[in-house]
Amino acid sequence: MKKFIPIILMSALLAACGGGGDTDKIGEASTVFNMLGKNDRIEIHAFDDPQIQGVTCYISYAKKGGLKETVNLEEDASDASVSCVQTAPQISFNEAEIAKPQKIFKKGSSFIFKTLQVMRYYDPARKVFSYMVYSDKVIQGSPKNSMDAFSCYTGAPLDAAKVSVQPNQQIHGSCIVTLAQK
User: Fold this and answer.
1) What pLDDT score does 165 carry?
2) How many other C-beta atoms lie within 10 A of the C-beta of residue 15?
3) Which has fewest Cβ within 10 Å: 34, 50, 98, 120?
4) Strand order, beta sheet including 114-123
5) Contacts with 88 (C-beta within 8 Å, 6 or more apart), sequence order
6) pTM score, two decimals?
7) Rounded distance, CA 92 to CA 99, Å?
8) Is residue 2 a part of any domain in this protein?
9) Residue 163, domain member (yes or no)
10) Strands 175-178 and 169-172: what pairing?
11) Where are the alpha helices (DSSP H) in 27-180?
12) Distance between CA atoms of 20 and 38, rounded to whole angstroms?
């Protein structure tokens, strides 16, 4: 049994560092040819904001290929970009649940120590969401980052006569906002 413990620990580490959550791979562009293993590339993934119905974010990031990727020992560059768009006729969210900044995406970018993250920030006065992508490392992170802002007033405004809202909800542009209880 003791000889299986290192294998189990290594499998757990590889699983923790691997995926980027619930994303759909949209495509990729090769940037550097590698004789062994996959080419270096830029990958594009899409994921829905988990607390804001009707908003999808698209993230592109550099992915290091080669032999190191084959054995999961590569360290990806800190270059990434994010863009979020309305993907439904209306957007709905609970203002109390999104008031504080929140990590909505996390993906391992190296064997153990580096991650790529997307944070969501909310500006309640303007009904605007800001999404920032950055990478961090246990010892030293990177100042490279990218951000996108999305407003409730970007899309077509909802017709209040055609949309049923609860007493604790308000319509702001294309958003139905559930207000915090007082």
Assistant:
1) 92
2) 10
3) 50
4) 102-108, 114-123, 128-137, 145-151
5) 53, 54
6) 0.78
7) 14
8) no
9) no
10) antiparallel
11) 66-70, 95-98
12) 18
- Alpha carbon distance 4, 46 (integer Å): 37
Extended strands (E) in 33-158:
40-48, 55-63, 80-86, 91-94, 102-108, 114-123, 128-137, 145-151
The answer to whether residue 36 sits within a structural domain is yes
Residue 32: inside a domain, yes or no?
Answer: yes
Q: What is the pLDDT of residues 28-72, one digit of tens each?
A: 887 877 777 777 788 899 999 999 999 999 999 887 666 555 555
More confident residue, 27 or 144: 27
Comparing 36-40, 101-105, 129-133, which segment has the lowest mean pLDDT? 36-40
Q: Which two tokens stand for residue 2?
A: 């003791």
- Strands 128-137, 169-172: pairing is unpaired
The burial of 156, by beta-carbon neighbours within 10 Å (0-12 exposed, 13-18 middle, 19 or more buried), is given as: exposed
User: Which range of residues forms the domain containing residue 56?
Assistant: 24-152
